[in-house]
Amino acid sequence: LSATSLAASPDGSLVATGSDSGVVNIYKHTALFGHGGRGVATPAPERSLLNLTTAVDNLAFSPDTQMLAMSSRMKKDSLRLVHLPSYTVFSNWPSSGTPLHMVTSMDFSPGGGYMAIGNAKGKVLLYRMHHYGRA
After folding, report:
1. 3 state DSSP class of 24
2. Is residue 134 very low, low, confident or very high in pLDDT (cuts 50, 70, 90)?
3. Which range among 63-67, 85-89, 106-110, 129-133 shows the weakest confidence by mean pLDDT?
4. Nearest to residue 106, comparing CAs of 87, 131, 125, 93?
5. In 59-98, which positions are buried (b, 16+ CB within 10 angstroms) versus exposed (e)?
6. Considering just the CA atoms, what is the radius of gyration of the chain in Å?
7. What is the pLDDT of residues 12-39, one digit of tens each?
């Protein structure tokens, strides 16, 4: 397993790592650095997500750390959203009809109300996150 991506949550509580095999590990900050800021030799992930099957290129936390987006540019429509802290992967989006194509980049708006997804066709898709009242 080789690390291919890394993201830290905006509130500093979580760190996500993506691998070349599609595994995404989510760690609590204290599991990695302890309570005194010192590193831990063999940290245990809080959760391992096996929903992608190719190298994870992008990881992005929503501004309030309630969601994690993960994607791979190696396979068409390979993007998943995870609800945190339940670690539940949303099964209703993206659907087979969502025209993501090969995802090359993604991020949430500062308020979390929108998600932008760039693809290999040179398009940027903008999606409204209805959970958030204000964008």
Report:
1. strand
2. low
3. 129-133
4. 125
5. bbbbbebbbbbbbbbbeebbbbbbebeeeebeeeebeeee
6. 15
7. 999 999 999 999 999 998 888 876 667 7
Q: Do 49 and 70 meet the contact criterion of CB atoms below 8 Å apart?
A: yes
Which one, of 16, 15, 19, lies nearest residue 2 by Cα? 19
70 with 82: CB under 8 angstroms? yes
Place of tokens 């599609």: 22
Q: Which of 133, 124, 134, 128 is nearest to 101 (CA)?
A: 124
At 106, list the tokens.
């993604």
